[in-house]
Design goal:
106 residues; alpha+beta; six-stranded antiparallel beta sheet; 2 helices; 35% strand
């Protein structure tokens, strides 16, 4: 697919929750995206000392931001073609280009 979101329901509003609370939130998110093509992914820092369990979901940018409003991450990733973008889920809703998404995969 050429367009998809990478989103999590972990730690809404950047408030650290327990793994069980985060898992429960992600189960609800999984139900919300079950109508489309999706897979589980882990998103983290370069050495993965920090990561969040997330989903790659084939949805529009608009639908991704709707989920962002519901699950309240500070931001989510969106892929368009080969480009990776960081979309703010906060009020300003900025969009920052981060380069090629494939170069960040392991």
């Amino acid at each position: 697919c050429s367009q998809f979101a990478i989103i999590t329901a972990w730690n809404p509003k950047n408030i650290w929750l327990s793994k069980s609370d985060n898992d429960r939130n992600n189960q609800q998110l999984a139900q919300d995206v079950s109508h489309t093509c999706w897979c589980s992914v882990q998103v983290g820092n370069k050495d993965f000392t920090w990561f969040e369990e997330s989903f790659a979901v084939q949805i529009s940018q608009h639908a991704a931001l709707e989920l962002g409003r519901k699950y309240q991450p500070n931001a989510l990733y969106y892929v368009e073609g080969e480009g990776l973008f960081l979309l703010s889920c906060l009020e300003e809703q900025s969009k920052a280009a981060l380069g090629n998404w494939r170069s960040r995969c392991r």
